[in-house]
Amino acid sequence: MPVERIKELAKKSRILRVLTRKYRIHTRQPRWDELLRKDRKLWEDSLRRVENTERVLLPTTIGAYVTGTTLESLLAVALTLRGVKTEVLLCDGVLPACFDCWIGWFRDQKRFARYGPHRDLCPDCFSPSYRMFRSLGIGVHRYSEFLTEEDLDSADRISSSIPVEDVEHFTIDGIRAGEHALAGTLRFYARGDLGREPCREEILRRYLKASILTARVMERLLERRDYLCAVFHHGIYVPQGIIGEVCRKEGVRVVNWNPGYRKNTFIFSHHDTYHHTMLTEPVENWRYIGWNRTLDKKLADYLKSRWQGSQDWIWFHERPEFDLKSIAYRTGIDLSKPMIGALTSVMWDAKLHYPSNAFSSMLEWMIATIEYFKKRPELQLVIRIHPAEIRGTLPSRQRMNQEIARLYPRLPENIRVIPPESRASTYAIARACDTVIIYNTKTGIELSAMGVPVIVAGEAWIRNKGFAMDVTDPKQYYELLDTLPLRKRMPEDKTLLAKKYAYHFFFRRMIPLEFMTPTGSNPPFRIGLESIRELLPGVSRGLDVVCGGILYGEEFIYPAELLEEEKITPQM
After folding, report:
1. Nearest alpha carbon to residue 11 among 100, 104, 103
2. Does the chain have fewer CB atoms within 10 Å around its N or its C terminus?
């Protein structure tokens, strides 16, 4: 049977989806047993040396998240080789909802509301990852070790009794369980709000119960063990957000990570998810980079490559169209008017509270923007809906263009919406704009480095960096819009700042681990080692940076600009 036909059937059949997932988990977990066989003595000696040393916790939790188990098992090996004992925490089917659950798997909401993941996901989540981590000879803790029947009953009672409108603000022992439960539920639905989903209340309560149980597990674990640091993926949603909250409360240092955008790279952050920390990172970390033609060319070449994603393992543009006149002809854009761009993001992604937002949500921002430009017919507003709404890992079920069409069945001629499925290049459109307005898209980093003026209305990472136009309330936003069109690019000094930050973000904060080879599928990488000796100190510069941050609290900054100097400096 053709592969495409199998995929089509799998989408329609729950049983086939479960079998496909089971096959992926079992076949794509790292095969450490084979690697360790080559260096058995080195590994056994390393395990003996760390028996009574400081510990690092890897609370992976979700064994079926192979992206997480792949990198975190590699960190377990690398840290052990550096003389530190590592331990893992896995959920063994206790949680009633988690990060691995989403509506694409549970199209029957009533089934998930009644049974949760226990029938379809849990059976093949814990065991493969448990066996893989145990093959390393390191300690693996289970959620169930730290919970009693009384804990389960208490979590059930609390989560079922709170008025649904109060869930978002619910805290337990100072832990913001409700905020993370709501973020997890929105991710489950792939929506920016819960709308009229038929089982929204039951599923929200499932995530709240999971948050409460995770908090209990972490509190008990940290009562019994001392850890130098806890290292885990994402840092938001359920359970990762709760794990971070408890660790911070108990004084355990937190390190979060995510795959970077460039191939073979990862972003690590201290204390919290990078969604938060990139907003507050000291400008001194990048402001004084010694800029030169080599760095300028490297950045320019990379930013150009992002138009088609040739150097990335995460991209959303398929066969983009760059001809602006052709795009304008097909979309009705009037190129005779000054063009203002408005770039959206995925509505549900990282739906957390950010106090610096001018608007409470991206939809509120969009409505305010449309209402304003309805009164400015001399300007052409072009709203580009993010392609990730349909091409992302979890395709959005609440799309901005649909919300706009619902609220505005007929838009004025000077406002054009380019839907997510359009092949029109976001970059070609944005570069032609007088000014671009963003809420939280990372594209603002790239556009600023090209000299395009950018207004930040949400929690974008270029906020507070000294080169974008940041707004913190609607009044300030409208006052800034009143100055449009600017009819000029950013000043040279601000453009240089933007270039330095873009270089810092893409080449210094994205740390290369050269042995993580792209797969072009899920997970996006696999471990391409020949020997665990490649993980010893001094072999991989990127891994040394990562381990230095985990063990000693050093900045997760890769010295890319210094390596460029080494390339062009003759060796004596």
Report:
1. 104
2. C
Torsion of CA 180, 183, 185, 189, to 10 degrees: -170
Q: Are strands 380-384 and 454-456 parallel, antiparallel or unpaired?
A: unpaired
Asked, for residue 179, whether it belongs to a domain, the answer is yes
Domain count, the chain: 2
Select from 448, 544, 440 the least CA-distant residue to 496: 448
The neighbour count for residue 288, using CB atoms within 10 Å, is: 9
Residue range 172-200, pLDDT digits in tens: 999 999 999 999 999 999 999 998 999 99
Separation between Cα atoms, residue 84 and residue 34, nearest integer Å: 23
Tens digits of residue pLDDT in 30-87: 999 989 999 999 999 999 999 999 999 999 999 999 999 999 999 999 999 999 999 9
Task: Look up residue 105 and give its two tokens.
Answer: 């798997």
Residue 397 is part of which domain span? 283-510
Q: Is residue 543 a contact partner of residue 569, using CB atoms and an 8 Å limit?
A: no
Cα separation, 20 vs 22, in Å, equals 5
Q: Could you tell me if 238 and 311 lie in one domain?
A: no
Helix/strand/coil percentages in the chain, nearest 5: 45, 15, 40
